[in-house]
Specification:
The structure is a single chain. Strands 2-7-1-8-9 form a five-stranded parallel beta sheet, with helices on both faces. Strands 4-3-6-5 form a four-stranded mixed beta sheet. It has one domain: Rossmann fold (3-Layer(aba) Sandwich), CATH 3.40.50.300. Helix 5 runs antiparallel to helix 6. Strand 5 and strand 6 form a beta hairpin. By secondary structure, the protein is of the alpha/beta class. Bound molecules: guanosine-5'-monophosphate. The site of guanosine-5'-monophosphate has 14 residues, from strand 5 and strand 6.
């Protein structure tokens, strides 16, 4: 069987990466979404092993030391990282694997996985991004401020990625993503 491929979706928190991924997986069940490890506490309704592997800081640091992560980054005071083994297994099986990760880790993928296609999702504007972050009502004011500060730094790196897609109108962004993922 032909080897699969790795698609990395990145962009600031609140840009709508999660929604895009959810629709993509519904429309294309053959895609495999990697489950990340994190030291962040679970939000209400999040399930360990499904949304994330929720780990202690010590357990996460062991994964780093044992080189079990394809990439990792610190984000808003917590660690986030992609477990390497499952991604490799699925790609070896010929599957298309999706990562939905923040920008520092997405940049780092270029070193550990040079063939990955790295796509940056842009908000229509910073004002719209702030309104989306507030609208989802999952984070404290302090967390929203920290995510917005980070977003401004992240947006400056967008040009370093293979492709940029503006998530203004959902269907249009999805169409562009599908084209990028399924064309060779
Ligand atoms: P949240 O706390 O909202 O679930 O995620 C915060 C940020 O961490 C989001 O931008 C999300 O894409 C990113 N993230 C999730 N998993 C990973 C990962 O495995 N690695 C990296 N570098 N970022 C991740």
């Amino acid at each position: 069987m032909a080897s699969g491929k790795l698609i990395v979706l990145t962009g600031p928190s609140g840009v709508g990466k999660g929604t895009l991924v959810k629709v993509l997986l519904t429309r294309h069940p053959e895609l495999y979404l990697s489950i990340s490890a994190t030291t962040r506490s679970p939000r209400e309704a999040e399930v360990d092993g499904k949304d994330y592997y929720f780990l202690s800081q010590a357990a996460f640091e062991t994964m780093i030391e044992e080189n079990q992560l394809l990439e990792w980054a610190e984000y808003a005071g917590n660690y986030y990282g992609t477990p390497r083994a499952k991604v490799k297994e699925k790609i070896d099986q010929g599957m298309i694997v999706l990562l939905e990760i923040e920008v520092v880790g997405a940049k780092a993928i270029k070193n550990s996985f040079p063939d990955a296609l790295r796509i940056f999702i842009l908000p229509p504007s910073i004002v719209e991004l702030e309104s989306r972050l507030r609208g989802r009502q999952t984070d404290s004011e302090e967390a929203i401020k920290s995510r917005l500060d980070r977003a401004k730094e992240e947006l400056e790196l967008s040009q370093e990625f293979d492709q940029c897609i503006v998530n203004d109108e959902l269907e249009m962004a999805l169409g562009q993503l599908e084209k990028a993922i399924f064309s060779d």
